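can u do me a favor
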């Protein structure tokens, strides 16, 4: 899918609405990830209100939910609820992203 494969780079899809408190907190953490990793990782916000097809495809029932895709587009982790910077960094490391 276009969501999962982005020029052979890992993708973090952030399913949320952007305005709930936990979603805002997650967005701030992911902005830190963007700054730290630059173009090594694609971080994509998926608005569950506007992208129902993707929300359904990945069976997202609670927000925020992060879905991690490896560089070939396979889901390697689906994490419901907010995820801190260190946990995201550790997951990316397990995926081979330095």
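np, heres the sequence
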């Amino acid at each position: 899918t276009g969501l999962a494969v982005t020029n052979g780079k890992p993708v973090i899809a952030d399913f949320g609405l952007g305005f709930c408190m936990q979603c805002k907190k997650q967005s701030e953490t992911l902005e830190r990830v963007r700054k730290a990793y630059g173009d090594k990782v694609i971080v994509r916000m998926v608005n569950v209100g506007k992208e129902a097809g993707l929300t359904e495809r990945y069976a997202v029932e609670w927000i925020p939910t992060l879905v991690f895709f490896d560089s070939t587009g396979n889901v390697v982790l689906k994490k419901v609820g907010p995820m801190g910077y260190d946990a995201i960094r550790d997951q990316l490391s397990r995926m081979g992203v330095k």
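Residues 20 and 96 are 31 Å apart (CA to CA). hope that helps!!
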